[in-house]
Amino acid sequence: MVYLTFQFKIMKNKQKHLQPNSGFTFIELMVVISIVAIITIVAIISFDSVRQASRDNQRKSDLKNISVALEIYYNRKGYYPNEDYNADGCDSSIGACGGSTSWHASSDIRDLITEKIITTLPIDPLNIFPYIYTLELDQAGEGTPACPGSGNTTCRYVLQALLEKDDCIYTLKGGYGNPNSMDLPSDCSGNIIPTGWDGKSCCAQ
After folding, report:
1. Do 177 and 156 touch, CB atoms closer than 8 A?
2. Which of 60, 94, 93, 73 is nearest to 155 (CA)?
3. Which of 24, 29, 149, 172 is geometrically suited to a Cys-Cys bond with 159, CB 3.0 to 4.6 A?
4. Which residue from 87, 80, 86 is spatially nearest to 100, judged by alpha carbons?
5. Is 170 helix (H, G, I), strand (E, B) or coil?
6. Which three-class secondary structure state does DSSP give residue 37?
7. Which phi and psi angles does 164 have, rounded to 5°?
8. How many CA atoms lie within 13 A of 103 on its CB side?
9. Helix, strand, coil % (nearest 5) of the chain?
10. Of residues 154 and 91, which shows the higher confidence score?
11. Do 132 and 91 touch, CB atoms closer than 8 A?
């Protein structure tokens, strides 16, 4: 009996020595949690930055597509769609000058759809801030060079969108003659500054 008891104790001691110390200390656990948290935060910030850049590229592409459609319209009509829907001198996709959640139903820029040049008018990917279409009318010699023809002919325009990543106003000018003659203030505002655009600078072109 004594021999068996002695053997049992020896085997128990061997098992204790063979078992690895598999537990983490509190400090080690906190270090691991901190590292995982830092990696997660960096990944979220990087992913959000990539998404902002992607949406900004979409905004630039949308304005370019509108611009191409406007040039096709001009080639057909000899002028650009008027913006006589709104007395402030611009049409927008939301809020700023006539829009609600899309380009206003009475907006003349919808002539691009009526003329079957495009099927839909693009809106901002988040639809929080507007796309803006502003014309420069040639009235009583306004505009350089003057628009061809007579009357209130529209021959220059500006398309604008607010970019997220650089927090600036992207401006695309177009039109007959020299569209760059449409000088805008440093805040890039045309005839109206939408809510949220105050103090924003022009994007580097």
Report:
1. yes
2. 73
3. 172
4. 86
5. strand
6. helix
7. -80, -55
8. 20
9. 40, 15, 50
10. 91
11. yes
Amino acid at 166: D
Q: Which pair of tokens denotes residue 77?
A: 């009509």
99's tokens: 């829009």
Whether this model's pTM surpasses 0.90: no
Adjacent-strand bridge partners of 173:
158
Range from 8-12, 75-79, 154-158, 197-201 carrying the lowest mean pLDDT: 8-12
**Distance, CA of 94 to CA of 102 (rounded, Å):** 5
Q: Tokens 């979220």 label which residue?
A: 44
Q: What φ, ψ does residue 112 adopt, rounded to 5°? A: -65, -30
Hey, what amino acid is at 105? A
- Residues paired with 63 in a beta bridge: none
> Measured between alpha carbons, how far is 190 from 97 in angstroms, rounded to an integer?
12
Residue with tokens 């500054």, as numbered in its chain: 193
Q: Taking Cα atoms as reference points, which of 170, 175, 179 lies closest to residue 200? A: 170
Q: Where do runs of H (alpha helix) occur along the chain? A: 2-18, 26-77, 111-114
Six-digit token string for 166: 């650089």
Query: Using CA atoms, how far apart are residues 92 and 196, in angstroms rounded to an integer?
Result: 14
125-150 b/e (C-beta count within 10 Å ≥ 16 → b)? beeebbbbbbbbbbeeeebeeebeee
- Angle (CA) 13 18 24, round 5°: 115
Confidence of residue 205 (pLDDT cuts 50, 70, 90): low
